[in-house]
Design goal:
The complex is a heterodimer of chains A (177) and B (359). Chain A has 177 residues and is α+β, with helices and mostly antiparallel strands. In chain A, strand 2 and strand 3 form a beta hairpin. The N and C termini of chain A lie far apart (75 Å). The chains are: A alpha+beta (177), B alpha/beta (359). Strand 6 of chain A pairs antiparallel with strand 1 of chain B, so a sheet runs across the interface.
Chain lengths: 177, 359
């Protein structure tokens, strides 16, 4: 099997596209730290892109390459890339796998991503249990679109009203002695 | 004589409508305290419904206390209501005391503090203090401050979305009185706090919203996703700050803005799981003396320390009377968790038995 890392290409950052689904996030402080790391050490791993040259992994390094004057100067606007022959669905799954290995994803963004994989890319919930390494319950929670749906509120009937009452007679629910 | 929860043979919606009608009958002026959350949203609609039933051709007065540290989705929800023609919104954006808890350290912070960059700016038309007014309010001050600022005469009823199932404190607040149990005193003589949906459950609230096709604050979907209790509150005080990781997961952009204003909350997210409570118990685990030393050494903020000392005195008396129900370890755990502003609940019978067995 050929490893993508065997063929690293230096591509111009303007020729790459961001993906719009990445559930991972990096705060500004960490972004600055990442910039410092690349400027001091140089590139230690490539950005992963799909055949459309859309980012699969390395979005924040891509963003820095676009925005940081120092990085543009040092690397002449180029970034090292490993190009993978994957479609959007496969790319999304790979992004999650790589993010999961690195840290936590924000739940709300994960929910949007899971919804798109199921609704638009025809993955079943059981496919994603395997592909994303998630539990069935986690997927159900992420895919349940609304609080109403999750609570099955349509079937619910209003509860019975109550007042506090003092009595020596038999009560229906005691609340305090 | 024992006090009971007495079911009255009608559902909570019918009962709440009757209570709102009564509030409108007996109060000289009615206003809804709206938080942007689902409970006060339902209360607001019930008041509006009653106004329509009575043929009152006037908007419903709504008060929003902007505590700054709220997700945008909450402020957007309040704004959506402010733009409705049946609502007259009074948006208060004045400095208020709040607290921040990071890894066992509690300190007072001021929301809407004009001396720092705000997490979120209030709208231009919000009610603010003049630049040279140094006042900082507490939550309790706000009943009096809002009513005097708005200048309504007579007895004013503030309608709240308080529900008894949310906490023991809230539960007690609606069973203390037998007559008009849902109309309670406030810190201001001319203001009564009215709680018409006190007996509703969370599902009752969502049922009403579903039935009436009313969109609710989108932040609830985020809270639901991270299994956070579906309550909107400021995120930095002791009890909420323990869920800071959930704030990050449920609303990352909001977390980023909070972090910009309060960079030390990072430590809470990174290290709370590693925070060594056992080490603290070893240092301060020698009963009431240890609790006292903890307050003295670890609670740097004077206001919180004063609250801590008051809690200590009250709890000590209860501990003397019923040591099994009020063990000193429970007080220390509460202090470490940043709880100084409310009473620590007694240990349940099962917990007491377990502790006795463990020796």
């Amino acid at each position: 099997m050929e490893n993508p890392i065997d063929n690293i290409q230096w591509l111009h950052v303007d020729d790459l596209d961001a993906n719009d689904y990445n559930p991972n996030m990096v705060m500004n402080t960490e972004l600055k730290l990442l910039e410092l790391s690349i400027l001091r050490t140089g590139w230690i791993q490539p950005i992963i892109v799909d055949r459309e040259r859309r980012i699969v992994d390395g979005y924040h390094r891509y963003r820095l390459s676009q925005e940081s004057k120092a990085m543009k100067k040092q690397f002449k606007g180029c970034v090292p890339c490993a190009v993978l022959d994957v479609d959007r669905g496969q790319a999304m799954i790979l992004t999650v796998r790589m993010n999961r290995a690195k840290g936590n994803a924000a739940a709300v963004r994960m929910a949007d991503l899971v919804k798109e994989l199921i609704d638009k890319h025809n993955y079943s919930e059981s496919d994603l249990v395997t592909e994303l390494g998630a539990s069935k319950q986690e997927l159900e929670l992420l895919y349940a679109d609304s609080v109403f749906h999750a609570k099955q509120i349509g079937k619910y009937k209003y509860s019975e009203a109550w007042i506090p009452k003092e009595s020596d007679h038999e009560p229906n629910t005691q609340i305090r002695d | 004589m024992a006090r009971y929860r007495y079911f009255i043979g009608k559902n909570v919606l019918e009962a709440a409508r009757e209570r709102v009608a009564h509030i409108c009958e007996v109060m000289d002026h009615v206003a809804v305290m709206f938080s942007g959350g689902k409970d006060s949203q339902v209360s607001l609609h019930l008041v509006h419904e009653e106004y329509q039933r009575r043929g009152w051709n006037k908007p419903v007065d709504v008060i929003f206390l902007d505590e700054e540290l709220l997700p945008n989705a909450v402020a957007d929800t309040v704004m959506r209501y402010a733009e409705m023609d049946w609502v007259r919104m009074h948006w208060f954006a004045v400095p208020m005391k709040n607290s921040k808890y990071v890894l066992g350290v509690n300190e007072t912070i001021i929301t809407m503090d004009p001396t720092r960059k705000l997490v979120r700016e209030p709208p231009d038309w919000a009610i603010k203090l003049p630049a040279d007014d140094p006042r900082v309010f507490t939550q309790q001050d706000m009943d009096g401050f809002t009513s005097s600022t708005l200048g309504w005469p007579g007895q004013i009823g503030y309608v709240l979305g308080i529900r008894a199932t949310e906490s023991l404190t809230r539960f007690r607040s609606v069973v203390n009185k037998l007559h008009e149990n849902y109309i309670c005193a406030s810190s201001s003589k001319n203001v009564k706090l009215c709680k018409p949906i006190y007996d509703w459950t969370e599902d009752d609230v969502f049922k009403w919203l579903h039935e009436n096709n009313e969109p609710f604050c989108p932040h609830y979907r985020n809270l639901h996703l991270v299994k956070h209790p579906m309550r909107i509150s400021t995120p930095l005080h002791g009890e909420a700050a323990r869920n800071m990781k959930k704030t990050l997961g449920s609303d990352p952009e909001y977390f980023a803005r909070l972090r910009e204003a309060f960079p030390d909350i990072d430590a809470q997210v990174r290290y709370l799981d590693d925070f060594d409570k056992n080490a603290i118990k070893e240092l301060y685990g020698d009963g009431l003396k240890g609790c006292w030393r903890y307050i003295k050494n670890e609670i740097k903020d004077e206001r919180r320390a004063k609250l801590g000392r008051e809690l200590f005195y009250t709890y000590s008396k209860l501990h003397e009377k019923e040591p099994a129900a009020y063990p000193t370890a429970k007080l220390l755990t509460a202090l470490v968790a940043g709880i100084t502003h409310r009473m620590v609940l007694p240990q349940g019978k099962a917990e007491q038995a377990k502790a006795a067995k463990a020796g």
